[in-house]
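Replying to the earlier thread about multi-chain prediction with a worked example.

Input:
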Amino acid sequence: MVNLTINGKKVSALEGTTILDAAKQNGINIPNLCYLEGIHKIGACRLCVGEVEGAKNLQPACMVAVREGMVVKTNTNKVRQARKILYELILSDHPQDCLNCQRNQNCELQAMGHRLGVKEARFSGEHSAGGLDISPSITRDMSKCILCRRCLTVCNEIQQVGVLSAQRRGFKTVIGPAMSLPLNTVSCTYCGQCTLVCPVGALNETDAIQDVWQALNDPNKRTIVQTAPAIRAAIGEEFGLEPGTLVTGKLVTALRELGFDEVFDTNFAADLTIIEEGTELLTRLTKALTGEGATLPMITSCSPGWIKYVEHFYPQELDHLSTCKSPHTMLGALAKSYYAQKISFDPRNMYVVSVMPCTAKKFEISRPEMQNDNLPNVDAVLTTRELARMIKEAGIDFCNLEDGKFDNPLGLSSGAADIFGVTGGVMEAALRTVYETVTGRELPFANLHITPIKGLEQIKTAEILIENPLEDYKFLDGITIKIAVTNGLAGAKILLDQVAKGESPYHFIEVMACPGGCIGGGGQPRPTSYEIRQKRMNAIYKEDEGKILRKSHENEYIKQLYAEYLKEPNGHKSHELLHTHYTPRGKYNELMR
Amino acid sequence: MPEMKNCTCSCAKENDEQKYKKLAELMKQYKNSEGSLIQVLHIAQAIFGCLPLELQRYIAQGMGKPLSEVSGVVTFYSFFATRPRGKHVIRVCLGTACYVRGGKKIITRLEEILGVGVGETTKDGLFTFEVARCIGACGLAPVIMIDDMVYKQVKPEKLENILAQYN
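Result:
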């Protein structure tokens, strides 16, 4: 331990701790705009400067490690004055158009001004070149960028996609793709993690709110909405509730009050995914073990950021992906076929909206593969943040809403579907069904949780021994099924490199593009930190455990769907509506074609 | 780096295939040593004359780096060009010493003589006119460089005579 004095307080901290962290541990919050705990510290914004005895200049607290006997002052006139000036200088190259900014009242720069007591922007001068870059998923407005470079770190280190980097230099620096190309011409996965960490309005999801209002106000349209599992564990934060507060019932009511005709649950399609993907896994395993040959490991396909990543960086490995569409496109496809038929309604007048924790899904719905009978499966994707804005705009008092219930038949779901929202969840849900299908017995884990694959670690693995299977699956007797789960694309890269070398020991891999899975998705409320992910994860498991129905194959409406319409898993109708194929894109995307 | 001494631009001497092959060989040597991207970019510019996006992509692939990082380095350093340059490259130093000793006046005069601005190439393709940030010859300020040649204590009125040596 190192002993030092901060603002007259004698404190101690572990060696290597920065002044900023040491102060925080002792109840002193030093302001900053670029620092992200455990992820990003480069001392770019300089707002964390403080006086260190013996040092000539002010020192950035996020960069300087504590030393024995150090005397730090973070609240002197000199420091306060310097911070204000630094802040005003940042502001002098910022549009200061808060009323017209999406981040108004949720902006770290704006909040910082208030905190530092800056009452006027004294400096004016040249502004950096702006220009909007609107991709299907993410909109960049670089005139608002304060060059904190959090997005750069997240893109290059956490996700290892590397489409964002600092281009040019000095005052002309722009954080963006190579040669300032637009995002839709490079190998961006649209995971949206950059939008999650941007302190200002420079990086946002591409707005779908106007389209959705228009559909809601169109008397000829039948509007159908569905919500992903991760929304119910996060949207409460937008209304001041504690992270991890489950608001499933309120969410349903809010969607009804917004004017949607049907409120369905993407969870239903998650259960359906388990049946389809589980069947696909068993088919592949059967073929592999009976000598017919099959591509293994099979890898999940629910996360469109992950899909685009494989298409760009490992186009030769696309066969490993399950052919299942992501759950919300499955539900959209069914709404416009099965359900439309059931209620005798022309699907051309249906408008399906998906509320997703995800920016990548905005691009996904525009893919030509996500259409049936020339109709897009899903017409619009709203992020968690966008839905919250609509609810506020509509004047709905979210926190005091009564609990509502999803509509059927596409609204009932098992606990297995809930955990699709968290890393490890799809794997666990699949194995709850697959293990039982093969052995006739429940998955042999306490409370049905495969503990080794739970949690926020980057890569998690487990082995499950198949013993005494049912007659149809005798060939699996004594086989140990090896599984791996990862969240965040850096982990995916490690597992994919093994696959590419032919050294992957696994049968089945789950990948979610975002750290933590969908609970930490690029469309989720800001901020999303490690602790917040943890709380949202706990909420998701609570939702699962609170249900009597815990396994996808026990969902009565799924059974009904197969009996009435799809006939059999992986059958003809399923392939038409619920399965897809992938497009090799290459590392540098279409730009060079 | 023998390539660098031989030519600022060897465009005319080799075909594209030979150039790419040469670059690929060099990248193999540099790939695993940390911080060697700049070196490779220097060599590539010497071989190709400039570093357009297509070439940056080739380098990114060869070095196993994101294209955005390669482009970031190329656009950071004024030495690198992404568009074809003239036969000769004039670099006027605007580092502190050269700046205070009249670098700006040299720029103004060159603009008049060449009829193009900083960053541009003359219509006849003879000169590309650039600004450099300190070439480490402050004692000789103000300096300009034409290709590999450094001219010391340059006065605006000397410029025409200097340029006349190049064709």
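Chain B touches chain A through 17 residues (CB under 8 Å).

Feel free to reuse this layout for your own posts.
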